[in-house]
Specification:
Immunoglobulin-like, alpha+beta, 9-stranded antiparallel β-sheet, about 230 residues, two-stranded antiparallel sheet, signal
Length: about 230
């Protein structure tokens, strides 16, 4: 009668261990996601190996040559060989996660024109994502469906897709571009984030960071000597 009991205990322990491992793999807190993060319920995001938080809108020209007030020769803002859009674009927020199998979930907000007569809104564009790994050419493009997803008038979009070809793991020096499906120029770039830096915390203006060596409360700093 005791033999089944002895067998039952290891089985229960094994089941508990498996349950704990599954919970850790799908727990947003364990993956560094805040509980109220819009991606916290997405398995591809929870199991992400690459994270991008925040975005940089494109400025078509990166620099001008010479010292004159007006440069006649400029350098276009190419990133990993990809041409920039012809007009300035801005993005209010970008949150993207890439899993080990190359699945991407990306939420963008406020990807709109930053200049021209249609400034402040999108005008019917569709976008796709490209991931680059490695800082040295030749660069391999890992892209989602080139047909892209449409931007709303306010420049919002969601991309849930897989990169083709699948990116390597680990992906060194990652660069994520949001690109125009019409001509494949880039509109915005993601800002890579360390896995465990969550959430974004900005100290309030009225609460400055502490001083490294503050003076004791009962020994305030001496007043400077009066000028003669």
């Amino acid at each position: 009668m005791k033999r089944p009991t002895a067998l039952t205990i290891p089985v229960l322990l094994l089941a508990a261990a498996l349950a704990a491992s599954v919970l850790a793999a799908t727990d947003p807190a364990a993956s560094g996601l805040a509980a109220d993060d819009p991606l916290a319920a997405d398995p591809a995001a929870v199991n992400a190996v690459l994270r991008f938080r925040g975005g940089i809108g494109v400025i078509p020209v990166s620099s001008g040559q010479g010292l004159e007030a007006i440069a006649t020769v400029v350098n276009r803002n190419l990133v990993r060989g990809v041409q920039p859009a012809g007009q300035i674009w801005v993005i209010r927020n970008l949150n993207a996660q890439v899993s080990a199998t190359g699945d991407l979930v990306a939420l963008g907000r406020g990807l709109v024109l930053g200049g021209g007569n249609s400034i402040g809104r999108a005008t019917g564009q569709s976008v796709f994502a490209t991931l680059f790994c490695g800082a040295v050419a030749p660069f391999t493009e890992h892209s989602t469906n080139l047909a892209g997803v449409p931007l709303t008038d306010e420049g919002d979009f969601v991309i849930r897709d897989a990169f083709t070809p699948a990116p390597p793991t680990p992906c060194d020096s990652p660069v994520l571009l949001i690109r125009n499906a019409a001509n494949q120029s880039w509109f915005a770039a993601g800002i890579p984030r360390a896995r465990n830096v969550q959430p974004d915390e900005v100290p309030p203006i009225d609460n400055p960071p502490p001083v490294d060596n503050p003076p004791p409360a009962d020994n305030p700093p001496a007043e400077p000597p009066a000028m003669p």
